[in-house]
Design goal:
It is globular and about 40 Å long. The longest helix is centred in the C-terminal third of the chain and has 18 residues. The chain is built from four helices and four strands, in the order αβββααβα. Strands 1-2-4-3 form a four-stranded mixed β-sheet, sandwiched between helices. 27% of the residues are buried. By secondary structure, the protein is an alpha+beta fold.
Length: 114
């Protein structure tokens, strides 16, 4: 069961063909897939967080957000490849903020499905 996007080609496919959803902490690129489950890719650039400590924290927050929203993701009609890009503000927040923001993004994705 593959749950992470790992190859550069997988990320590029989502960036080029997927839909973009912007928020204050996260930019999400979402592309329907033919897999039995949702897959996740995460990027936090050096431009976003200079220190590796901050980049790693931001990535952990995004992974945890995705993990905690696993049940809500099952409510979507299709399975998707998600690429979450962390923004600068993400480094300074607690886990509740990205959770709320990811909820709003999922609501927009669900609305686009209809």
């Amino acid at each position: 069961m593959k749950v992470y996007l790992r190859r550069s080609s997988e990320f590029k496919k989502v960036y080029q063909n997927g839909r973009r959803y912007d928020a204050s902490l996260i930019t999400a690129f979402v592309l329907p897939n033919d897999q039995p489950n949702h897959r996740l890719g995460i990027t936090v650039s050096r431009k976003t967080a200079i220190r590796s400590l901050d980049r790693n924290r931001a990535k952990r927050l995004l992974r945890e957000t995705f993990r905690l929203k696993k049940d809500s993701l099952e409510d979507l009609k299709k399975k998707y490849d998600w690429v979450l890009n962390g923004k600068r503000l993400l480094v300074a927040v607690k886990v509740e903020s990205p959770l709320e923001e990811f909820d709003r993004i999922m609501t927009r994705v669900a609305a686009d499905e209809a």
